[in-house]
């Protein structure tokens, strides 16, 4: 699918008869992310090159979309998770609905938020990106609007009207597309229980330099305020792969100061170094526990945060040797509009 998207977008960009692109899901979900069970099977069968080709193509497509010269509209109705978010959030307009559910649950699977996630999460207000990346917690459509992940909100029932209106446009002018999307927009306000109303607590706890300090801060906050949310956040962190947590925190922190292409190159390194099993087999173990055997009892390696050394984390960020090429992106020819 990713390969086909990449070829289509390249051809559409060069086609003068196409003014803009609209992307939507084919069913109840927009996109629930990569087929990780298929990836798990590729690794178990020793098909490393096929695994590598998937991520190379995926990240190249994300860069293509993030630098696409024509306006782009993504209708994120339903589940939008993992790289399902990555293949849509880099575009110009992101329409969400009352059915939208967004998350980056990768640390729960022994992986890291990728497909540009270290770019868009690290650029969210305060330390919200760290919270979402480390816990894998969900946001709804209203919350995506509030934090800037989405640009337009409309009720699911109005989507046929939106698609009909936009589908009749013959233009490459972003302002005309923007006006058409806004015509069917709805005014929204955050729910009283929304996590975004806890942004001060998130900043207080997730601004620390290490996962251990973040957990300590959350536990202290829970003890002093009796806040159930803090306890749930701690539980999520303790369920995740300790190694993935430390790798993810560093990835998000580096993303704050990097461009999209730099983030994708780093994510590609983390992905390939991670599944090389030089340090850990957490990716395969996480998929096994959550999606294959479904015992929800992963045996993480290393088993605790204390056992994760700096050298282990650094290994994930290391440049490849001369036999393994880095991710190639056409940065000299393309420029992100962000």
Can you tell me about this structure?
The chain is α/β, with parallel strands linked by helices and 338 residues long. It has helices spanning 2-14, 36-44, 48-66, 83-86, 117-120, 128-135, 141-147, 159-167, 174-183, 199-206, 211-225, 228-239, 242-255, 260-275, 282-292, 310-317, and strands at 21-24, 72-76, 79-81, 93-96, 101-103, 139-140, 152-153. The strands form two sheets. The chain has a four-stranded parallel β-sheet. Strands 3-5-6 form a three-stranded mixed β-sheet. The two termini are 26 Å apart.
Question: Which features does this protein show?
Answer:
4-stranded parallel β-sheet; 2-enoyl-CoA Hydratase, Chain A, domain 1; alpha/beta; 338 residues; 3-stranded mixed β-sheet; 16 helices
Proportion of helical residues: 40-55%
CATH level-4 homologous superfamily:
2-enoyl-CoA Hydratase, Chain A, domain 1
Radius of gyration: 20 Å
What fold name stands as the CATH topology?
Answer: 2-enoyl-CoA Hydratase, Chain A, domain 1
Total strands: the figure is 7
The SS-based structural class is alpha/beta
Task: Please state the average pLDDT score.
Answer: 92
Provide the domain count: 1
Largest β-sheet summary: 4 strands, parallel
User: What fraction of residues sit in β-strands?
Assistant: 5-15%
How are helices and strands ordered from N to C?
Answer: HEHHEEHEEHHEHEHHHHHHHHH
Instruction: Tell me the span between the first and last alpha carbons.
Output: 26 Å
CATH architecture: Alpha-Beta Complex
Please work out how many helical segments DSSP would assign. Answer: 16
What low-confidence regions span 5 or more consecutive residues with pLDDT below 50?
Answer: none
Pfam families: ECH_2 (PF16113)
InterPro entries: ClpP/crotonase-like_dom_sf, ECH_dom, HIBYL-CoA-H
Enzyme class: hydrolase
Pathway: Amino-acid degradation; L-valine degradation
